[in-house]
Amino acid sequence: MTGFMARHDAQRERLRAFTLVELLVVISIIALLIAILLPSLKKARAQGKTTVCLSQLHTLGQGLAMYAMDNNDVLVPCRMPNLGDGVNWRAVIAGGLKYRPTFLAIIGGYVGVPAFDDPQPEKSTIDKSGEKGDRQNYASTVYVCPAVADWTDERNGSYGYNYQFLGNNRLLDEGDPTRFKNWPVIATRVRSPGRCVAVADSMGTAASFRFKKPYDNNGRDPDQLGNEGFNLDPPRVDPTKGEMAEYDNSPQAASTAHGRHNAGQAAVLWMDAHASGETPQALGYNVDPDGVVGFDGTNNLFHIDGKDEAWVVPD
User: Fold this and answer.
1) What is the C-alpha separation between 105 and 107, in angstroms, rounded?
2) What CA–CA distance (Å, rounded) separates 283 from 126?
3) What is the separation, in whole angstroms, between the first and last Cα of the chain?
4) Is the pLDDT of residue 5 over 70?
5) Which of 72, 77, 71, 130 lies closest to 100 in space, CA to CA?
6) Residue extents of the structural domains in the chain
């Protein structure tokens, strides 16, 4: 009887076990499900980043508007200019005195989120994260596109400002710290706020090159992704009278919109504070098959009067 029971139990164990064929079928089904679901999950994750990015830009748009209301309708400058000869241009931002803050750092107090944990008043002083005063990292994700979460450097940032038309405060004459290339700009002069770009996802000056180097937080090479990213050049710049983000490079290199979200779109903040996803081409940029962005696009969505006029440095 005991032997019979043992044989019966062994037979039941064999019946409960999977055969090799059954295991392979189950594995194949699981692999098929993963193959079907993975693209959807990746798309959903990317869409989530796009939504966050657009929400952040909308918040920053409120800050831009509040800055103008608090400063006699003058739009925020792109970045405080470099006066040279060891003379530093500083400004008070949320958290203290800061060396040459960008437009993002300047509006930080208006959106209630300080741009830096430890703003530095001098170029060479070091903050608590080990970064110099002219190349600090943003402390809040509000100032960084989630699709490129490591682009935290204030110079090589992920969001660029339409500075040529809204706030180019580079010195027109290096000997005169009171004259700028296009600043101040009055907010109410923007004819169609809902059709004028304020801020957008920026590729940096790598846009002007076929071969683009990876992002470097403190890098300065024109062909690196994110280089001079806080600037956003318009699609059309006069090749001889104009000036771009990397104006001291030969040839000059422009920082343009970056279609890094779903369907090749860039997140864009418009002057009326609404945000939307747009391809660089829809914004007026000409992009060749090698991914090089030209300087001969259309400026209707960047010019404060809605005109297709090339950017030129004022006389």
Assistant:
1) 6
2) 39
3) 109
4) no
5) 77
6) 50-278
Give the model confidence (pLDDT) of 279-307 as tens digits.
999 999 999 999 999 999 999 999 999 99
Report the C-alpha gap between 184 and 74 in whole angstroms.
6
| C-alpha dihedral sign at 144, 148, 152, 155 | negative
Task: Please state, in angstroms and rounded to a whole number, the distance separating the CA atoms of residues 214 and 257.
Answer: 17
Task: Give the residue among 179, 180, 154 at the shortest CA–CA distance from 169.
Answer: 180
Question: What is the Cα–Cα distance from 230 to 145, expressed in whole angstroms?
Answer: 12
Q: Which residues pair with 276 in a beta bridge?
A: 268
Query: The tokens of 256 are what?
Result: 């343009």
Tens of pLDDT, residues 195-204: 999 999 999 9
How far, rounded to the nearest angstrom, does the alpha carbon of residue 178 sit from its chain's CA centroid? Answer: 29
Residue at 116: amino acid letter: F
- Total-model pTM: 0.87
Please state whether 206 falls in left (phi above 0), alpha (psi between -120 and 50) or beta. alpha
Residues 148 and 159: their CA atoms lie apart, in Å, by 10
Q: Which residue has the tokens 């846009």?
A: 207
pLDDT over 70 (residue 14): no
DSSP SS3 for 173: strand
Q: Other C-beta atoms within 10 Å of 96: how many? A: 13
Mean pLDDT on 57-69: 96
